[in-house]
Amino acid sequence: MNSDILFALSFTFILSVIIYVIDLTSSSESSRIKPLFSFLPGIYFLILFLGNVMTTLITASFITSDETAQGIALFQSYSWFWYAVIGVFCFEAIIQNINITYSDKGILTISDWISKAKDRAVAKIIERNIEVNQDEIQILSSKILKLDESEINTHILDYLGKDRFEKLKKLIDDNPEIDPLLIKSKALAQDAFDEVSSVLRSRK
Amino acid sequence: MFNQCIMELNKTFTSGLQFVVMNIVDMKLFSLITKHKSLRFEEIESMIGDSIPYGNEAYAFKDENEKKERIKNSLQTLEENGLIKKKSSFIEDFETFYVTAKGLQETRKLTNYM
């Protein structure tokens, strides 16, 4: 394997990681990177990367074997860069148009495989994101519990509004068995996470 | 035999439209959860209040209790059909509903269909 192909494949890997992170964080509306590194999202990355490797190699073999393509000045220098860029960005166009058929019946389109893998990956990230959010809310809520009740009430009125405050009071009245302070602190941690975190940071 | 096998594969992986029959509230809730990816019960309640007018005959709610009940029923239907999942909480308002892989696939089919 020549060095151009090796560089191209390394660059393909970097581009695939960038596309994978942007694609999955935007599709799952999550800003966390950690949930991306688990089994189902990993499978999606593997399919994406394999597809990109395939199209990068096809691009490289086309450019090196085609005299007209070789004649283009753009491909004379840093050809590995162009193999990877064209390969990766053509992948999307190629997958939309490849359909394996048998007896004129579509067995499986590549885009179907990718969509299924992506949906599972996104669903897993959403689930993981909720778990991480809940963990963070628990931690913040236990810190809020150390504040005075009057201060907690003030923050609820300030950040969540009077309607929410009244709703919480009703909820506490309707459920006498629950801890009023814990519920208030959870509501505050859930709906005013950044504001309350800032308040607590300023105390340090 | 091989042909049958191919047809089964085809059905499994590239199946046509298999939308679950939903009423208007189910549809609204599903689209809200799919759009936001995850929502708490209280958020769903306030959003559906904003977007579904009480005066509309198709989904008029008599009062807050009926609205709550219909939302709960719809969420249960969506959950039973595997389109959403629930993270339980002791307080109903804090329960979180989020879209599943099947829900995302159904949305994709619906988008392609339209």
Give an account of the 3D structure.
The complex is a heterodimer of chains A (204) and B (114). With 204 residues, chain A is mostly helical. Chain A has two domains: 3-125, no CATH class; 145-203, no CATH class. Chain A is 78% helix and 4% strand. Chain A has a two-stranded antiparallel ribbon. In chain A, strand 1 (99-102) and strand 2 form a beta hairpin. In chain A, helix 2 (39-65) packs across helix 4 (79-97) and helix 2 packs across helix 5 (110-144). Chain A is elongated, with a radius of gyration of 26 Å. The N and C termini of chain A lie far apart (58 Å). With 114 residues, chain B is mainly alpha-helical. Chain B has one domain: Arc Repressor Mutant, subunit A. Chain B has five helices and three strands, in the order H-H-E-H-H-E-E-H. A three-stranded antiparallel beta sheet of chain B has the order 1-3-2. In chain B, helix 2 (24-36) crosses helix 4 (64-80). The longest helix of chain B is centred in the middle third of the chain and has 17 residues, at 64-80. Mean pLDDT of chain B is 76; it is low at 12-17. Classes of the chains: A mainly alpha (204), B mainly alpha (114). The interface between A and B is medium-sized, with 30 and 26 residues.
